[in-house]
Request: fold
Amino acid sequence: AQSVTQPDIHITVSEGASLELRCNYSYGATPYLFWYVQSPGQGLQLLLKYFSGDTLVQGIKGFEAEFKRSQSSFNLRKPSVHWSDAAEYFCAVGAHGGSQGNLIFGKGTKLSVKP
Amino acid sequence: KAGVTQTPRYLIKTRGQQVTLSCSPISGHRSVSWYQQTPGQGLQFLFEYFSETQRNKGNFPGRFSGRQFSNSRSEMNVSTLELGDSALYLCASSLTQGSSTDTQYFGPGTRLTVL
Reply:
């Protein structure tokens, strides 16, 4: 069965520091991978997605993620964190032929940013 | 263009009652998905509708049902509410169903509290 693991429940970084959020997936075929962000009281916003091709994916707000098939990972990175990046981040895998209508999410990583 | 709207934003019900939540997708979007978000289970897929037909369904009891209208608006219904149904219910829309390249846009959610 497909699954997504985000090993870090909560991460705190200083403003201006680099960030890496980890995501590991289990999927029998070529995965379709997504990162979403959720601010308090808000819905989910798509940061970036990977379907095929270049394994380094650029997203919005200066985020990028790298797909590593050998490690079954899709880690999210940002070179310099801003206070406004404080939110919860979810990694997800597409479960049926790439349809985004049926996503399996990880449990999320809450990011806190120190001034 | 207006985003995904969900009504009501907050709802308080008692055990045994039933509830109906509404979702209006982005204009032109034909696919609507529903997710339940709880602190314990995280984000879980409920169902996906496209062209008034349920295309995918998650692992939820039959008390959870939904429908989609010809204008793509969707409702979900939960009958015989249980305390464990307290959650944030998120709706997401995309242009088409089963398309890998479509972005899924989420609404702000309906916070349901069951007392």
Notes: The two ends of chain A are 41 Å apart (CA to CA).
